[in-house]
Amino acid sequence: MTTSGCIDSVRNVVEQAGDNQLTLSIATLPADADRQNVQIARRLEANLEAAGVDVSLDMRSPSELLKAVLIDHEFDLYVGRHPADYDPDFLYDALHSTFAHERGWQNPFGFANMYFDTLLEEQRRLDGEQRKQRLGSVLHGLAQEKPFEPICFPDERRVARTDEFEGWDEGTLPTRHGYLGLEGDDRLHALVTDSRVTQNLNPLSATARGRETTIDLLYDSLLSERNGELVPWLAESVEWSSTRNDDTNGEQSDANVDGERRTVSITLREDCRFHDGEPLTASDVAFTYRFLEDTSLGRAPDSPAPRYRGQVEMVESIEAEDDRRLTISLRGETPAGRRALTVPILPKHVWQELIDQRAANGEFSAPQGRWVAVTGDHIPPVGSGPYRFESHTEDDQLILGQYEDHFTLREDVDLGEPVPGGIRFTVDPGSTSSIRRVDDGGADLTASMLNAHSLGAIPDTPDVRQLSSPHRIFYYVGFNVRNAPLSNPHFRRAITQLIDKETIVDEVFYDHATPTATPVTDDWVPATLEWSGEDPVTPFVGSNGRLNVEAAKSAFETAGFRYDDNGRLLGGY
Fold this sequence. Notes:
Structural class: alpha+beta
Organism: Natrinema saccharevitans
Protein name: ABC transporter substrate-binding protein
InterPro entries: SBP_5, SBP_5_dom
Strand order of the largest sheet: 2-1-3-18-4-19
GO molecular function: peptide transmembrane transporter activity
Oligomer: single chain
Family: Belongs to the bacterial solute-binding protein 5 family.
CATH architecture of the largest domain: Roll
């Protein structure tokens, strides 16, 4: 069971609410930010009200919504879009109880369950079929406990012109490899529907960052994800080794890892530099991992970065042997261990100076996630990636130039090259208008994922090409399980039965999405959780989009709640 204070909190609700109608708020985005998001929220609002709950919608901008959910933890329910990751280890970040009181993308729900923790930890030490089995147990438990409820994976579609740039097949947008696979001499003009990229380029920001595409263009990492696989990036060579730990008494676990200490010896590419001309060395790599673990570097308690937390946890120690060579001890040469090597490498001289200045001014009293290292916009950014910052106009555009000294431009490196003209990201908040601009030749690419309602506007012309990316992002409803009655899993299950995922996909996404019972896809999904026309655990209580109100009320009564004579769901058991 969750340890979010269920019994005490419910008693508190009974004492305070008495016979008052239960009231909930659903945080969401306005239609001009994400039309699908608010339509899902409105459907849930209508069905909750039909079931006797007093509901209000709390519409916020993308940054404000993420601040309320990820930083302040001030919400009841929210409808959002999870960036997920190429590997299901992101579930460790999302659900482990260690993070229940932290701020950032890790466990915003406040969910705490020791059984889940054990499974999540075990899958990090495993690979192959054993790992798949552990993750299957995680997914089954998630379907029962429901700290959040996945709804669907939207079709990720973009459009691009084919007359100025070639190579759209070489990589998958939106990744750094997708952009480095392009060929053309001019500046790539890409349209984005979200203006946050023009306002904040802090790689640690939880409220400004969804996916990491822009950060991956500005910053390098040791390894880089390419079509679901990790390839050396800033690392020229990666050598794995293992030694037996002394405290195992010669016993070997089924993971073949617990009895071993995994180390990776990394040699950085020669003569790499940050965009300000300073050399990038193994010292910067070691600093990055130490800083992500504690953004105050020992000057304040509980200050891990609100991003990359789970990845950094896989690192036991790191030692710089010289400017190019370092040794990292990891908790295993597993997918989760390799994922730890994908964080952006930060310049020590920039971030150390920031910390020293703030320490001198006594600015280390703010709690995790709220001081300038993670809340500042960090414009201009100092990275080492294939593109460098040139200029920006807030809410209008961001211009990145080719970094002429980047290793991808060397003859002996075959990882794709940044286009000579750089990239201009321009804000166009409408998916349909973005498609029209590309069709008219006013832009080369819609960099943001297009909203489902606009896909019918994609023209069938030879100069415009539709680009598809694998399912990764998913829409979901998140619950703040810190507070009653949402601390009660039976109550959460009753709410999820009000969500008709098939009808949402049909009427909100115009069939340009795939309904789901899990936050992962493909081979990771156990057969018992595969979608077969309805949710296999908590099916919609109704049919063809119409709620069976009596069945919905019965679900809440089964969860221990009661109704008054006017059909209002009351705030206590």
